[in-house]
Specification:
The complex is a heterodimer of chains A (110) and B (116). With 110 residues, chain A is mostly beta strands. Chain A has strands at 4-7, 10-14, 19-25, 33-37, 43-48, 52-56, 59-64, 69-74, 83-89, 99-100, 104-109. Helices cover 0% and strands 52% of the residues of chain B. In chain B, a hairpin with a 2-residue loop joins strand 7 (67-73) and strand 8. The chains are: A mainly beta (110), B mainly beta (116). Chain A binds chain B through residues 31, 33, 35, 40-43, 45, 48, 86, 88, 96-103, 105, and chain B through 32, 34, 36, 38, 41-46, 49, 91, 93, 95, 97, 101-107, 109-110, 112.
Chain lengths: 110, 116
């Protein structure tokens, strides 16, 4: 089945720093989402981005489907950005049966 | 926007008892709901897919008799962990696919189950 790998697995930043998180997937997909899981476990949908680039405030994401990767950019990081970031892709075209990546655990220090 | 409500947020139960977790779509009809399980510091693993009015589809390795899923209406899916054991302790999260589908999943807030 499809493999979804994220890097780096862990990341520690000083408040105000920028970072780039990467998501690689092993097969063609037509759908991808980025999520933030906060320290209480709540999953927040960040981006639905099957291709191209989207921006939302300090966050932006780019998916290059032909090269099977997606990037999540966090600028001017804040302590509230701490948590785990997951990308998720569906293994079968046209379904929402998502497979989650391995996750990047981010800690932003004040 | 679409909201999925999941209850309870935390539950502690004794070994051998059963626990029911509810997942409700509050402002949309969820034709399909998904149940995930997450162990500490691990990713989310899909357990099963439930479709309103039909039997759930379980992922390989998930015991259907242990994790009973019922999706009796377009706004409610339940997961019952039967005869719970300490190894069932985990974080369970539901998600829903509603209409329109342009925005992908909407997730519940999760349930932390501890079996003692």
């Amino acid at each position: 089945g499809i493999q979804v790998e994220q890097s780096p697995p862990d990341l520690i930043l000083q408040e105000g720093a920028n970072s780039t998180l990467r998501c690689n997937f092993s097969d063609s997909v037509n759908n991808l989402q980025w999520f933030h899981q906060n320290p209480w476990g709540q999953l927040i949908n960040l981006f639905y981005i099957p291709s191209g680039t989207k921006q939302n405030g300090r966050l932006s994401a780019t998916t290059v489907a032909t090269e099977r990767y997606s990037l999540l950019y966090i600028s001017s990081s804040q302590t509230t950005d701490s948590g785990v970031y997951f990308c998720a892709v569906p293994p079968v075209s046209g379904t929402y049966k998502y497979i989650f990546g391995t996750g990047t655990r981010l800690k932003v220090l004040a | 926007g679409a909201v999925v409500s999941q209850h309870p947020s935390r539950v502690i139960c004794k070994s051998g008892t059963s626990v029911k977790i509810e997942c409700r779509s509050l402002d949309f009809q969820a034709t399909t709901m998904f149940w995930y399980r997450q162990f500490p510091k691990q990713s989310l693993m899909l357990m099963a897919t439930s479709n309103e009015g039909s039997k759930a589809t379980y992922e390989q390795g998930v015991e259907k008799d242990k994790f009973l899923i019922n999706h009796a209406s377009l706004t409610l899916s339940t997961l019952t962990v039967t005869s719970a054991h300490p190894e069932d302790s985990s974080f369970y999260i539901c998600s829903a696919k509603g209409q329109p589908t342009n925005y992908g999943y909407t997730f519940g807030s999760g349930t932390r189950l501890t079996v003692v």
